[in-house]
């Protein structure tokens, strides 16, 4: 799971519930310091598995300073966005339709879309359903198909635990498996925030989306078929155990996408190196807005 540096919204960030045709979603909405008149465009950020909108919290100020309105969202059943207990509600196509509704509800015209990890799979599915609401797509640490074999084993283990244990029991079991250095680091103060976020996830959402990570088909050719209609960007750290970096390199080539590697980052460049990641994303958005 990504470990945001804080769960406290930065100055200039408005937490609220975005009302859409498919329900309400918790968001963090950050505007440029100069107000609406200085906005270069709007972006929608989609978090990954077991994550939340706070995973982008360190990216919000630098992106706003660069002139972008940035909206990070909790998907249905994720942290502060409620969701049903029916696993079918979390099918990838349903989550993709949620994104389309969120983009429409922002009322900003086509938005730049960025998805981290599982969020990238959801974002890709939304674009394939309807690319019209989007100006560009950035896939951050999100690969062409199912996750790596050892990650599939981990996700299956978590799904099995969620089937027989409550969320608190699973949390305690996961923490017991933490390496000593992570346990020591968490003692510095972020453990309770992470625990609170974990407990507010709907277990049906975790089971359904976890299963999707283990069976997702390769849809790169479908996305590449959009051709020049939508600028594409593949961004990752220099090391990634969920989708190995050479796999992401190959996906970018197949897509004809811009490729960015963030030095010093692993699976979560958004929390590992937020300033450098924000600069790369802002540069891509600016280029995507140029006449083609």
Secondary structure layout plus pairing:
Blueprint: E1 13-20, E2 23-30, E3 41-46, H1 60-65, E4 68-73, H2 92-105, E5 111-116, H3 118-129, E6 134-140, H4 149-164, H5 167-176, H6 180-186, H7 191-200, H8 203-215, H9 220-224, E7 232-237, H10 245-255, E8 258-262, H11 269-272, H12 274-288
Parallel strand pairs: 3-4, 3-5, 5-6, 6-7, 7-8
Antiparallel strand pairs: 1-2, 2-4
Order of helices and strands: EEEHEHEHEHHHHHHEHEHH
> What percentage of residues falls in helices of 4 or more residues?
40-55%
CA(first)-CA(last) distance: 38 Å
What is the CATH topology classification name? Rossmann fold
Number of helices: 12
Average pLDDT, rounded to a whole number, is: 94
Protein model, in words:
Residues 44-148 form the AB hydrolase-1 domain. InterPro entries: AB_hydrolase, AB_hydrolase_1, AB_hydrolase_fold. Pfam families: Abhydrolase_1 (PF00561). This is Alpha/beta hydrolase. It is a single chain. This protein has an eight-stranded mixed beta sheet, with helices on both faces. The chain has a single domain (13-146, 217-288), classed as Rossmann fold. It has helices at 60-65, 92-105, 118-129, 149-164, 167-176, 180-186, 191-200, 203-215, 220-224, 245-255, 269-272, 274-288, and strands spanning 13-20, 23-30, 41-46, 68-73, 111-116, 134-140, 232-237, 258-262. The protein is an alpha/beta fold. The protein is 42% helix and 18% strand. The protein has twelve helices and eight strands.
């Amino acid at each position: 799971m990504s470990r945001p540096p804080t769960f406290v919204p930065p100055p200039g960030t408005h937490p609220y519930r975005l009302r859409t045709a498919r329900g309400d979603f918790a968001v963090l909405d950050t505007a440029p310091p100069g107000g609406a008149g200085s906005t270069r465009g709007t972006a929608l950020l989609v978090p990954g598995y077991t994550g939340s909108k706070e995973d982008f919290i360190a990216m919000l100020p630098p992106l706003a300073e660069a002139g972008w309105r940035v909206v990070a969202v909790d998907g249905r059943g994720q942290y502060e966005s409620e969701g049903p207990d029916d696993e079918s509600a979390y099918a990838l196509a349903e989550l993709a339709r949620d994104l389309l509704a969120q983009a429409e509800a922002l009322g900003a015209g086509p938005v730049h879309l960025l998805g981290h990890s599982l969020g990238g799979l959801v974002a890709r599915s939304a674009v394939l359903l309807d690319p019209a609401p989007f100006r560009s797509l950035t896939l951050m640490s999100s690969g062409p198909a199912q996750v790596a074999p050892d990650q599939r084993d981990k996700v299956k283990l978590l799904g099995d635990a969620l089937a027989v244990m409550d969320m608190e029991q699973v949390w305690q079991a996961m923490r017991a498996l933490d390496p000593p250095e992570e346990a020591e680091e968490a003692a510095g103060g972020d453990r309770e925030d992470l625990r609170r976020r974990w407990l507010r996830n709907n277990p049906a959402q975790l089971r359904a989306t976890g299963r999707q990570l283990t069976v997702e088909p390769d849809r790169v050719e479908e996305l590449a078929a959009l051709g020049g209609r939508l600028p594409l960007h593949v961004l990752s750290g220099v090391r990634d155990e969920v989708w190995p970096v050479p796999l992401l390199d190959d996906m970018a080539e197949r897509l004809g996408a811009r490729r960015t590697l963030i030095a010093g980052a692993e699976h979560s460049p958004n929390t590992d190196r937020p300033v450098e990641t924000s600069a790369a994303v802002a540069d891509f958005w600016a280029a995507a807005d140029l006449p083609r």
